[in-house]
Amino acid sequence: MAHDIAINGDNAVALAWKQIDPDVCAAYPITPQTIIVEKFAEYVANGEVTTEFVCVESEHSALTLCTASESAGARTFTATASQGLAYMWEMLPITAAMRTPLVMAVANRAVSGPININNDHGDAMSARDCGWVMLFSENVQEAYDNSIIAPRIAEHPEVQLPIMVNLDGFILTHAIERMSVIETADVKKFVGEFEPIYPLLDVKHPVSHGNMDGPDFYYPHKYQSVLAMEKALEVAEEVFAEFKELTGREYHLVEEYMCDDADYVAIILGSSYGTMKATVDALRAEGIKVGCAMPRVYRPWPEAALAKLMKGKKGVAVFDKHLSIGAYGPMFPEVVTAAAELEQLPKMYNVIYGLGGADATVAGFKKMMEEISEGKANKITYLGVKA
What we know:
The protein is α/β, with parallel strands linked by helices. It has helices spanning 9-20, 34-45, 59-72, 82-87, 91-97, 122-126, 140-154, 184-191, 215-247, 272-285, 303-310, 332-339, 362-373, and strands spanning 3-8, 24-27, 52-55, 76-80, 103-108, 133-136, 163-168, 176-181, 254-257, 264-267, 290-295, 297-299, 315-320, 347-352, 380-382. The strands form 3 sheets. Strands 3-2-4-5-7-6-12 form a 7-stranded mixed beta sheet, with helices on both faces. Strands 9-11-10-13-14-15 form a 6-stranded mixed beta sheet, with helices on both faces. The mean pLDDT is 97.
């Protein structure tokens, strides 16, 4: 039987890890991720898991070790944030190219500089092209659930890619919320035993990993990852359906709220999706037909699902919690591309918000969506910026 507890997002992730009991965890502490590895190290020290926990000297070493252990045939988890993810950057595409389905929790935090420890999506967005599957969480419950769902997607024989579970720093990592916990036996049954493909330690079937690729092989190997990503969309939907059978909680590639009859739709990631749903309620009370959506699966990009929800809309506002300096927010051109096949393209708006932990409020979102519905908004708006 499931039971409810009060817990913060970092501890919720650590609890999910405890229930899964991975073979190896290597990580380096960094705010606001630190609580995850501190709590999990406590589970290790108390003998509540059988995991081999390795205290490394840096995030680069953490991911290098995790990639090696996963390649050897061990189910491996890690976690980081911000500069830690940046320090891993050299290894991010290598880990993906080696098809190591490890799980990494990312406590989303602004990337320096200037130095900032608060939430935005600069870390995840800077890593988005490295070949990792990426899930986003709206609340603590979803951070826990995504941590249980993640290995099922990553380890699928036709996917075999690393996966990031994103949760907003401080907003979710440190906020205590009510959450429903799945029984550990049910978690273990759902996730299953790890069945590595071509593990290095299978001495009866020797293989080599991480070889040098010339032009004849590099491009085809990259294309194999493209095919794996495409398969991950289908696999994610299958895993979500199984998770619903287990828990009753329903997840989709793209979460939608009151989009069916909406004239205007806001697309947003992470905890701000909850704020935007409250905004939609306020606008609906005023007779403005607005809806909102969150791509739970950000990589692979759920283009078809997004195109379907944008069909027939008058306007679409893409809220980016990161800025590609010199261009738009990173999600905006991808949403525009998803809409490009529609017979009639909605008016498209990009809203940059919340950088470095700047407030993301119902009042601010409401004013923005009112301006869009009145045709008064610019193509790109830096919401709430103080020059």
